[in-house]
Amino acid sequence: MKRIALTIMLSSIAATLALAQPLRQSRIITDSVSSSILGEDVKVNVYLPRGYDAQDVKLYPVVYLLHGLYGTNTDWTEKGHMKDVVDELVASGDIPKMIIFMPNAGDPDVHNNWNGYFNMPGRPYEDFFFRELIPTLESRYRVKEDKQHRAIMGLSMGGGGSAVYSQRHPDCFSSCYAMSAWLDSGEPSEDMPKDKLYLVSKSVHDHSALAFVDDADEETVRKLKSVKWFFDCGDDDSLVGLSMDIYRKMRIKGIPCELRVRDGWHSWEYWHQALRMALPFAARNFGEREP
Fold first, then answer.
1. To 5 degrees, how large is the angle CA 20–CA 75–CA 130?
2. What is the DSSP string of 224-239?
3. Which region holds residue 59: left if phi is over 0, alpha if psi is between -120 and 50, else beta?
4. I need a surface site. Which of 2, 194, 198, 240 has the fewest CB within 10 A?
5. Residue 238: phi, psi to the nearest 5?
6. pLDDT tens digits, residue range 84-103?
7. pLDDT over 80 at 56, yes or no
């Protein structure tokens, strides 16, 4: 009888530990935000840190991590292996525990489906991002809902999106880390088919991060100085000139920023390593006060 009781007790303990194990580990979930602005549900991959499910009231800083052209909300998880990077940096003490949101803003079929972070005819994505996405996610998860604990970063199209969002909404983000950023496209050729790729290319030109700096008046420059800036691009990347240009323009305007041109090109190998720099950069700037 004692042996039976002991077996039952051990089985109960094992079951309890098995149920508790996922609660102790970090995890990626897929959520969605219902948008009245876009008229659709937008998927979001969410990184939740180890211990998030514990019954406490701890609030976490938040990072918005944006994908590139041809990508979706799953790219950073499946191709960038971001969970491994975040877990390692948290374990080493290089960054605090944080929540990371990876919203969808694209589709691999760039000619027939929408891509892009800016407002375009028939798709006001920027309005959705700031009026619906951020408020919904930050009310749904335990995050610190203020500029000083909110960062944004991304690659390629998402790098340009993170830079322009920080320019146009400097009150929202403490830092911006733009990887291999698509900061301007030039005016699309009139010979280009007027499909969805044409629209996103035109939107990047219409929202040029370079032109924004050129046109910034004294008050705008003051606001831009409240954001910490980092541009990171490979020396063999066709977009490297854009990062060098915006760095030069911002320095001329007296806006502090950092630039790294490392060995590499437009690839996941490069962005995987960039994330190891981007997250500590965001962490160093959480909680800083505006100048």
1. 90
2. HTTSEEEEEEETT-TT
3. beta
4. 2
5. -65, -15
6. 999 999 999 999 999 999 99
7. no
